[in-house]
Structures are given as C-alpha cells and as structure tokens.
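Hey there, shall we discuss this one?
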Amino acid sequence: MTAPIAHGGGISEAAARFGGAPEDWLDLSTGINPCPVALPEIDPRVWHRLPDGHLEQAARAAASRYYRTSNLPPLPVPGTQAAIQLLPRVAGPAGRAAILAPTYGEYARVLEAGGMVVDLVETVEDLAAAPFAVVVNPNNPTGRLFQPEQILALAEAMALRGGLLVVDEAFGDLYPAASVAPHVADHDNLIVFRSFGKFFGLAGLRLGFVVATASVMGCLREWLGPWAVSGPALALSARLMGADTEEVAKRIWGRKAGLDAVLAGAGLEVVGGTGLFALVEHERAHALHEGLCRARILTRKFDYNPHWLRLGLSADEHGDLRLAEALQGAGV
C-alpha cells in the first residue's frame, strides 16, 4: 500500500503541534475560494429524502450549461477524489500510466496502488505514446496552463494507439476558455474532471463532475453505487451553477491581488499559481512554513521540492495584513 499524501487543510493537526485552537488559525494551505457564495434556499424535503432522480437531472442540466458540454450531461460524483480512486478500473488492462508532473500527488498514488506502473514526465509530447495519461490543467501547484488545441491534439495522438486521456480541470472555473469539457463529445478517449467546491467555496459539499462518454460515465455511476451524491449537494449545485458567477470570479481575483501584493511586499519570488493560490520559491521554504505555523498561519509545503511553498487566499484585507506581519516576523 502506498503511503498517504499530506494535503492542505490539516488545521487540527497543525494546532495540536504548534498550539492554539483550530478557529485561531488562518488556513492558506488550500486552493479554495475563502469567500463562499451565499447558500440559496432549497426545498426542506431535500434534507429528508434520499436523492431523487429529478435532483440529479437538474444538477446535470445546470452543469452541462455551465461547462458547455452540449448534449453530454456531466456526471455528479462525491468529489473528484472519489472519481480518481476509480481510475485503475477505468484504465483497465493498460498496465502503465504517464502523468505530467509535478502535479496533484493522488493520481500517482492511486494508480500505483491499483497495480499500474506510473511514469512521471515533464512534457506533453512524452504522454502521447502512453496507454493512459493524466494532465492537470491548470496545474496544481505550478499553475501551468495549456490551451484546448494542445490538449485535444494530445487526445487525438493517443487515440491512434487506443490511449485514454484524463484532464483534471479542478481549478478551471477561472479559465473557461482553456477547458476541453465542451469537446469531449467529439473525443471518446477524453475524460474531464471538474471540481465544484473550489470556485464556489463549498468544498465541504464534496461534489465534482465527470465529463466523458456515456459508457465511461455509466461505469462510474455503477461503481459508485446508489445515492453517491447527497440531495442537498445536487440541489445547491443546480441553483448556483445556473446563476451569474461573474461576481464570484471578480471577488476571487480581488483576493488574489491582495495575496500577490503581500508576497511582493515581502520580497518573495512567485513562480506559479492560479487565481486561487500562489506558488513561491524560497531557499528555506520549510523553515518559512514552520515560522508561519508559529504565527497560526498554515501554508502548503512540498516534500518533493523543499524550496516551494503554496499559499491560498485570505478572506479579507485583515487576513492579508496578518500574513504580511507574520512574514515580517519570520524574517523573510
């Protein structure tokens, strides 16, 4: 069994080590919108009943419009991590997978745990000959972004050899023009994962969507079993994805500008990121991480690159100021 990965969001563990109550901490360790959208009212019966078919239909219809998938309604799943766990079954007898790295570590962990040989590669061209490949776009944690024509060319090259391509667009809401979800209907070897909670600030719902051929989505539905997604998650997503999200995006970019200003003021080198986080490079990144922890601020460090530190967004200017003061106190 491969070792579990330490992800962001471990406030309880950090508080147990460095002190303070979890609510005292400023969590900058995740790439989640810190200003969650207001929850619309939903029928109280949704909380009482098992998820009904009409709820899923409404959520899939809203997701289809939101992700522009035409006549291919995305499949709701209980978080994209749940779909990642099923990838060895999706890959079938492929036996080998290539992942564009460095990236979200769960892909390699899950595929290796499923008995596959995993190659971590650095260029898109290195993926073309693989029977099964994964690209995170935009990437976590570097923010590397490919345009649709690059991804679709890769899918077509892989299709010539019978290969399957998974594209994780968990951070894609702020980059709609880069999404290949609208093109899945024309590429039957393409599978796209989308996250709901990051952009809307509702990660606790544990909701994601998969865009793939009907046969792939049918297999995922069967493997996940009945009632995989809660009724409230389906109802809320249908309402929120059907609303105007321009203000949500504008607020996120405003918060990102605040983070960028703090990092620039501290003299930190930003080497990547997306609208929801920044990646900085620092020769003593792990020491900086611990210094911020002593100020009750949690960031994301990386075992595979001791010079990287990822910082998410504060909810307001007070959080920006707190980070700026902590960075000054940490001797940056």
